[in-house]
Amino acid sequence: MKNLNNKVVVITGAGSGIGRALAVNLAGKGARLALSDVNEAGLAETAELASKAGAPDVHTARLDVADRAAFTAYAAEVADHFGQVNVVVNNAGVALAGDAIDLSYEDMEWIVGINFWGVVYGTKEFLPHLIASGDGHIVNLSSLFGLLAMPGQSAYNATKFAVRGFTEAVREEMLIAGHKVGVTSVHPGGIKTAIARSARVSDKEDQAATAKLFDEKLAKMTPERAAEIIVKGIQRNQARVLVGLDAHALHNFQKFTGSRYEDIVALVSKRVLPAKAV
User: Fold this and answer.
1) Per-residue pLDDT reduced to its tens digit, 7-18
2) Do 94 and 114 form a contact (C-beta atoms < 8 A)?
3) Left if phi > 0, otherwise alpha if psi is -120 to 50, otherwise beta: which for 17?
4) Strand (E) or helix (H) holding 50
5) Considering 105, 121, 156, 261, which one is annotated as catalytic?
6) b/e map 188-202, b = 16+ CB within 10 Å
7) Which residue has the higher pLDDT, 277 or 151?
8) Whole-angstrom distance, CA of residue 196 vs CA of residue 213
9) Prediction pTM value
10) How far is it, in rounded angstroms, from Cα 35 to Cα 25?
C-alpha cells in the first residue's frame, strides 16, 4: 500500500504512545481515521492532534478491546461510518510484570484479554472489510518480547509470542487465498511510552523501580520515530517490522545463540533487574 491518502485506517489504543503517534503520522498523509481507546480524555487529545495534522475525517469511540461484543459493534459502526476499511492497526496493549509463580490468574487473564484477544477480535471483525476493499492491510503490534523471552515477563511474553504466531499465520492464509491484504507483525523495542508506569505487577514486584528501569534505561526511541518506521513497513508491505536498534540487536542475538540465549539473559537479568520483595 504505497498511498495512504483517503484510506480508512483503524487504530486501537490511540489515546497515547505509539497509537497517538501513528494517528498523527497517518493524518499527515491524508488518511481518514477511526480511533479508539478506553481513555476517552487521551483519545480526544489524539483526535484534535490528528485533525490539526490534516486528517479529513476522524471518528472516535471508547472501546475495550477485550470485549468481543463491543468490538463486533464497533467494527460495524466504523464500516457504516466510512463505507470501507483499508488498514487496521491492533495497537492496544498493556503490561504485567512478575514471575509466573507470583502472578494472579486474574491479572494473567486481564493481559491475555487485551493483548491477545484484542488483536484476534480486531483482525477477525475487520478482515472481511479489508478483503472487500481490494487494498487492505492488518498491522498487529507484538513486541521485542514476542521474539525472545525475558524473566519477569512470562505473561507479557506469552501474549506477544501469541500475537506474532497468529499474525504470521493470517499472512500465510491471505497469500494462499489470493486476497489483496497485507499483514505485518510489529516488534518494538524500548519506546518512550507510559506502558511501564501503567503496568500491573505481582505482589513481589516494585512497580516504581521497574518503571524507572524501563523509562531511564530501556526506552530509547520516541513514539513518533516508531510510527515513522511502522508506516514505512505498511507502505512496503513488510511481513515483520523491527522497531529500534535494541529490537534488531536482540533479535540477531537470539538467532545467533539459539536456545542458549535463555541462560545468558538469566545471568544478565539477575544482575540488573530490581530486587523482589520476600
Assistant:
1) 999 999 999 999
2) yes
3) left
4) helix 40-53
5) 156
6) bbbbbbebbeebbbb
7) 151
8) 9
9) 0.94
10) 13
